[in-house]
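With this grant's support, we have settled on a layout for protein records. An illustrative entry appears below exactly as we store it:
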Amino acid sequence: MGSYVFYVGGSGSKMLEASLHAAAAGVLSHVGEPIHAVIVDLDQTGGNLKRAEALVSAYRDVRASINMTDAQTEEAAGIGFKTDFELYRLTAVEEQAMSGILRSTGMGERREIARALYTDYELEMSYRRGFYGHPNVGAHFFASELPNLPMEHSFTQAIDLIRQELAKGMRPRILLAGSIFGGTGASAMPSIAKYIRQLTDENPN
């Protein structure tokens, strides 16, 4: 039974940092299968994402440098680094404005409806820096794009692992970590939760 944590938005990246520090200190100890950590943050310029990714790399380097003798000594001393993190990402997409997604779903053909729901800025804003206080834009993006990500995408690979476990009658542990006050977290968390819920509906066991 796998453990999956979706770290969503800038706050999610900070929570991933906290998880890594806790694992390094031995407070978080998950022996056996790795924690499948899924980072969801489109803001490539954000410091939170960069720090979290750098810390994951540093944590892995330290963990890999511990040989079997050291690991046994650490286990006896109760020191950390016993938890492995398998990293997945949804941190970059083809740069596309809201207007493009609306066209792909058919709503763009009804410009007056789109204009009633979104400002001119929101219709043309880039996703390269996330959604920054525009969860109405982000919510449409994630609801439209999550089911259509290619099979080789890192996020889809994590979802496929969940699907495989559910098909076998297993009950994977799934946690969404982030803030619903802001842009990406408020946009993505409801959409990811709904997407995963659909997987459980497909596999009611």
Observations:
- The CA atoms of residues 176 and 192 lie 8 Å apart.
- The chain has a mean pLDDT of 81.
- The longest helix spans residues 47-65.
- The longest strand covers residues 3-8.
